[in-house]
Structures are given as structure tokens and as C-alpha cells.
Amino acid sequence: MAGSETHYTLPRPSFDEDVKILIVVAPYYRDIADDLIAGAKAEIEAVGAEWELVEVPGALELPTAIRIADQTADFDGYVALGCVIRGETTHYDTVCNDSSRGLSTMGLAGLCIGNGILTVENREQAEVRADPDRMNKGGGAAAAALHLVALARKWKGGALPAGFRPPNA
Ligand SMILES: Nc1c(NC[C@H](O)[C@H](O)[C@H](O)CO)[nH]c(=O)[nH]c1=O
Ligand SMILES: CC(=O)[C@@H](O)COP(=O)(O)O
Questions:
Q1: Which one of 28, 59, 69, 138 is most buried, by most CB atoms within 10 A?
Q2: Residue 60 annotated as binding?
Q3: Signal peptide span per the entry (predicted)?
């Protein structure tokens, strides 16, 4: 029953201020990447946010590209898109694990990143997951980034009353 499972998705966040998301894509499998991009763009546009798109050769470059962007530009969040299909050697594990670890490490450092890197056994699994009309994993990754941006803004600028000291401060 490939691709028919459903799961709960949070309602879309709303934003009072501008949001700019960088989509970083590894078009190692061009058609799969294009579907992931379409899903991500639609999700970002659905909340009125802006996006910019850059490409890197493969999934292993995705975390580095995001790190470079974080150091040199001013995005609110990031969507990493790509596809890793198992081959004959152990390289699959390296590409899957290191790309994921790179994104997670930056996430724990406070960056708002949605992970849309498909890690699959074959093309069919990838096609189902990338298709915006089926599993729409690009849209899901964009939604994740947007939810983190909303969370990061939730307490930002929430001024405490003058002279107020939080407990244990
Ligand atoms: N095998 C896949 C790769 N491999 C390439 C690496 O991501 C990387 O670009 C290379 O090792 C140079 O640093 N990338 C994918 O995105 N998908 C694959 O299936
Ligand atoms: C995901 C991969 O690394 C894969 O494309 C590489 O294939 P192989 O293990 O046959 O070299």
C-alpha cells in the first residue's frame, strides 16, 4: 500500500511579518527534485511567505549550503530537498546519514530547517513521496520549516513589563 498512509498535519501557521525561506535542492534525480520543489513552493506561498531557490550537486552538500546561507544571508528558515536511492555499495548510508545529521545539528543550534531529503530503496518510492498530489514530502518539509519559524517568533519581542524580573532571574 505504497503511499496511501495518512498522518495528522498541523494547521498552517500565520505570520504578521514577512517570512523568507531558502529552498536548497539537490537535483541528483531531476524529476524527483522538481516535484519536491513544486510542493515546497506551494506550501510557502500558501502562508504568504517568500522563497528563493538554490541548487547543489547532491544531498551531501545540502547542510553546507544552508550553513553558508546562514552565515552570509538573512533567511528565516530553510527547506532541504533531495533524494537518495540505495545503490550497490554502502555509499547510500553515508549520504543519508551525513546529510540528515548535518541538518539536525544546525536545527539544534537554532536554525529553522525542514528536512525533505527522501531516502528510499527505489525510484517508485521516490516518485510517490515527491509527487505534490500524493505524499508531497516537499510540501511537508516546507511546512516543518514554517512551523519552526512561527515558533521562533512566538516569544520574540514579547517584552516583559518594565522592572519585571522573571522568577529565578
Ligand atoms: N548517491 C546520491 C548522491 N551522491 C552524491 C553526494 O551527495 C555528493 O554530491 C557527492 O558525494 C560529492 O560530495 N547524492 C544524492 O543527492 N542522491 C544520491 O542518491
Ligand atoms: C545513494 C548512493 O549512494 C548511490 O546512488 C550510489 O550507488 P552505488 O552504491 O551503487 O555506488
A1: 138
A2: yes
A3: none
Interior/surface letters 73-90, b for 16+ CB within 10 angstroms, e for the rest: eebbbbbbbbbbbbeeee
Q: Is 119 annotated as a binding residue?
A: no
Segment 6-26 mean pLDDT: 96
Q: Whose C-alpha lies nearest to ligand 2, atom 4?
A: 87
CB 71 near ligand 2, within 6 Å: no
Examine the residue annotation and report whether 7 is marked as an active-site residue of this protein. Answer: no
- Where do the structural domains in the chain lie, given as residue ranges? 20-153
pLDDT digits 0-9 by tens, 112-155: 999 999 999 999 999 999 999 999 999 999 999 999 999 999 98
Which residues face 80 on adjacent strands?
24, 115
Q: Ligand 1, closest atom to CA 56?
A: 9
Model pTM score: 0.92
Whether this model's ipTM surpasses 0.90 comes out as yes
With vertex at residue 94, the alpha carbon angle to CA 119 and CA 129, rounded to the nearest 5 degrees, is 5
For residue 84, say whether it is annotated as part of any ligand binding site: yes
Rounded Cα gap, residues 22 and 25, in angstroms: 10
User: Does the 20-153 domain belong in CATH 3.20.20.70?
Assistant: no
Q: Please say if the pLDDT value at position 158 is more than 80.
A: no
